[in-house]
Write a structure and sequence with these properties.
This protein is an all-alpha fold. The chain has one domain. Helix content is 50%, strand content 0%. The longest helix is centred in the middle third of the chain and has 25 residues. It is elongated, with a radius of gyration of 16 Å. The model has no long low-confidence stretch (mean pLDDT 86). Keywords: Membrane, Transmembrane, Transmembrane helix. Pfam families: DUF805 (PF05656). InterPro entries: DUF805 (IPR008523).
Length: 106
Amino acid sequence: MFKRPFSFEGRIRRTEYGLSLVIYAICAIILNIMIEVDEETFILLFAYTPPMFWFLWAQSTKRCHDIGKSGWWQFIPFYILWLLFEDGQHAKNQYGDTPKISRNTR
């Protein structure tokens, strides 16, 4: 899980994608609380935003790949929520092997 989280190549399962959204939300909440307490920490927003957006875009792209779609689909409004519920393709596709391979078969 979370192998190459900033890469746009490959596929990820719904679980990893959901955890990515939770991590992003927790970091955003913590940063917002810090900014409310001390306005000087506003500079952290500039340090936090680019890597976290890159992380979220990469994870969303890999989730799109898992269902056989291009990463550009994530820019459709609310499509990232659909990615939480849509089951991935069960076989290898143009984006790589299925991430659902059980650990017992490796």
